[in-house]
């Protein structure tokens, strides 16, 4: 019985191997088939199966993000400036009070959309706080509870954080990486991103309504009237109606600079 107990003890010792916790630096004995373990002192999790993978598309992702941000910002400026140039002279001709009201609404929506877009795109999405690690003399018991080691940043990663290879850093409370703002949506800019989406929706609705209203005011009516006794919508009638619509659109575009001059 005593010899069998010694053999069992020797077997148990030989089936364990020594390793070091990355969080506090303490040596630990682990089973052979245990690549992932949690330190009993600091609470850090070590996973030997997670290795750093090379990302060959990092430069392409960053270039794509910059192009999306530049295009979206230019498109917003084009819609704002183009709408003011095309619609506001017509609105002021209809009613000066209506023009003032729409000027205020346009200014509020434009400033809100551009400012929230800028905060979402250029503000840090949420960097994890700095924390001491590497030695048990500076790491207290349980201070790295459920922390893992980020092989890309080479520092502790909070359980609330996720590494974004497009941004090249760990993001706290990361929701997703949005290419249209060229940034992650995280703890620091999540509210700004939601505000940008709401502002963009209201701005789109407002621009659509104002475009329809202005077009209704400046487009001349169709000159063609179908015969009263005509019951068959022929191909020639469809082509004639399309031609009249194109002529009306072209004439309105040609008359628009003259209306701007008279309004000024």
UniProtKB/TrEMBL annotation:
<keyword id="KW-0808">Transferase</keyword>
<dbReference type="InterPro" id="IPR001594">
    <property type="entry name" value="Palmitoyltrfase_DHHC"/>
</dbReference>
<keyword id="KW-1133">Transmembrane helix</keyword>
<keyword id="KW-0012">Acyltransferase</keyword>
<feature type="transmembrane region" description="Helical">
    <location>
        <begin position="193"/>
        <end position="219"/>
    </location>
</feature>
<dbReference type="GO" id="GO:0012505">
    <property type="term" value="C:endomembrane system"/>
</dbReference>
<keyword id="KW-0472">Membrane</keyword>
<protein>
    <recommendedName>
        <fullName>S-acyltransferase</fullName>
        <ecNumber>2.3.1.225</ecNumber>
    </recommendedName>
</protein>
<dbReference type="InterPro" id="IPR039859">
    <property type="entry name" value="PFA4/ZDH16/20/ERF2-like"/>
</dbReference>
<comment type="similarity">
    <text>Belongs to the DHHC palmitoyltransferase family.</text>
</comment>
<feature type="domain" description="Palmitoyltransferase DHHC">
    <location>
        <begin position="146"/>
        <end position="220"/>
    </location>
</feature>
<keyword id="KW-0812">Transmembrane</keyword>
<feature type="transmembrane region" description="Helical">
    <location>
        <begin position="100"/>
        <end position="122"/>
    </location>
</feature>
<feature type="transmembrane region" description="Helical">
    <location>
        <begin position="68"/>
        <end position="94"/>
    </location>
</feature>
<dbReference type="GO" id="GO:0019706">
    <property type="term" value="F:protein-cysteine S-palmitoyltransferase activity"/>
</dbReference>
<dbReference type="Pfam" id="PF01529">
    <property type="entry name" value="DHHC"/>
</dbReference>
């Amino acid at each position: 019985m005593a010899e069998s107990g010694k053999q069992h003890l020797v077997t148990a010792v030989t089936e364990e191997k020594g390793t070091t916790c990355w969080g506090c630096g303490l040596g630990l004995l682990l089973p052979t088939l245990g690549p992932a373990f949690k330190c009993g002192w600091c609470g850090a999790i070590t996973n030997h199966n997670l290795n750093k993978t090379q990302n060959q598309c990092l430069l392409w992702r960053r270039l794509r993000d910059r192009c999306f941000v530049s295009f979206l910002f230019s498109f917003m400026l084009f819609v704002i400036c183009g709408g003011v140039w095309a619609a506001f002279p017509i609105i002021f001709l209809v009613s000066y009070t209506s023009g003032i009201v729409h000027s205020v609404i346009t200014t509020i929506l434009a400033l809100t959309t551009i400012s929230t877009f800028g905060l979402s795109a250029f503000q840090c999405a949420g960097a994890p706080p700095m924390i001491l690690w590497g030695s048990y003399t500076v790491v207290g018991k349980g201070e790295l509870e459920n922390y893992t080691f980020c092989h890309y940043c080479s520092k502790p990663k909070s359980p609330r954080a996720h590494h974004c290879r497009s941004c090249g850093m760990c993001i706290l409370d990361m929701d997703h990486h949005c290419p249209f703002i060229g940034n992650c949506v995280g703890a620091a800019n999540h509210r700004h991103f939601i505000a940008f989406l709401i502002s963009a929706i209201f701005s789109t609705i407002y621009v659509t309504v104002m475009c329809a209203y202005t077009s209704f005011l400046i487009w001349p009516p169709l000159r063609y009237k179908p015969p009263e006794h005509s019951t068959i919508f022929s191909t020639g009638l469809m082509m004639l109606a399309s031609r009249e619509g194109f002529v009306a659109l072209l004439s309105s575009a040609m008359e628009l600079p003259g209306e701007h001059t008279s309004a000024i």
